[in-house]
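Repro:
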Amino acid sequence: VGGRVVYDFESGVPSGVNVYGNAVVDSGILKITDAANGQNGAVLVTDVDSGLEVGQFVATFDLRIGGSICCDLDGVPRPADGMSFNFADDLPEGTYGLVNTSGFDEGAEGGQGSGLILSFDLWDNGGADDAPEMLLAYQNQMIARVPMGEPRTRDPVGEIPIDPANGEPMRLSTDHANWPPLPTDPTFAQIMVKLDPDGTVDVSYKGVLLFDNVQTGYVPQRGEFGFGGRTGGANSAHWVDNLAIQTFGSLGPVSIAQDLSPAEQTVDENTVVTYTVAADGTPPYSVQWLRNGE
């Protein structure tokens, strides 16, 4: 039991999605910010699963970060400020404030709410910041971080992953690294965020598993999904397309009330076979049949 939404944004702002600030749907793309200074946009995907507690989810979307027209550093544009993907029951109905509750960064790139945050932080603001980086947080506490390969003012904390597309250090940016920017079509990369029933999170980006089975301490809760993004004195486009979210309810303790092991059946190939099981406990239930233990 859960919910599912799929948005391609071809018909404008879909039902169940609210946009705030500079965020718009334009030409079939959800544009949280454009590559222009001083922007702040937010998106709220309202109740996906009718108010049920979410025990697990899978979210995928195509992401564009790029188009920076500012701040040449080592012959490459230096984009800012970043964006975040969030799941929480206390996301704002509006843009994200400049000081969030996460304690690791300010503004929309640091995320909002007391739930799960995936931060795409482009600009190093000093202190504990290690941008450019991708960062995972839960209940306002940083859980894990991965440094990325945009131009830096400090050495990274940790190892920058390699982009399999070009064999170079992976960047959060998806556009080609040219200065000045070339008038080419914007480039998107797919991201997958997966929360498992045991509270672990997997995140893949550009075909690379960046967070693998990271324990967050997540407990099932009601909530909504949201994006936030901003630019300041430097900028970047933060665009989303082909958003799909699948949620699943939390699994309570279940005991089999009656052993109804499947009886042996002989059927023709491609014939539908029906098995039956009875269970008690707290729904929703999850049942899996095994063949020869596999």
